[in-house]
């Protein structure tokens, strides 16, 4: 394995993609966000903070391509609770650590703090995240192959968020 420091261009490329994803979600640019994912990618928000077997566990979200598309459609239609008066959000993604890197992909962990404002109420959500970023020919071709969002309070009652994490 090569140097996994933040001077590694593969690591920086993955971090830039993760930050771009956060900016798209805050801008509610859901179609562009959806296009960031590989066709075989998973987007998961597990309830069990320790599970890695998402298909055999209870999850808040366990989306493949089809389910991500349906989720984006709901967010954009304006007919669902999640789309009506959608929250304004700002998220900070930081504390990056690299699990592994190759010429094809990087697995990177981070922490996210999301602040949301909806109906005169502020909500703060903390999460540990894992992204597997798969590299394309250029940075424009890079895609998310896996995103796991482990909410700090995942085992508690979580209300409908009205935004993507």
Automatic annotation (TrEMBL):
Q: Which UniProt key words apply to this protein?
A: Dioxygenase, Oxidoreductase
| InterPro entries documented for this protein | NTF2-like_dom_sf, Rng_hydr_dOase-bsu
Extract the GO molecular function terms from the UniProt entry: dioxygenase activity
Key word Oxidoreductase present: yes
Q: Which SUPFAM superfamilies match?
A: NTF2-like
Q: Does the keyword Acetylation apply?
A: no
GO BP terms? 3-phenylpropionate catabolic process
Family membership: Belongs to the bacterial ring-hydroxylating dioxygenase beta subunit family.
Return the PANTHER family for the record.
Answer: 3-PHENYLPROPIONATE_CINNAMIC ACID DIOXYGENASE SUBUNIT BETA (PTHR41534:SF2), BLR3401 PROTEIN (PTHR41534)
Q: What is this protein called?
A: Aromatic-ring-hydroxylating dioxygenase
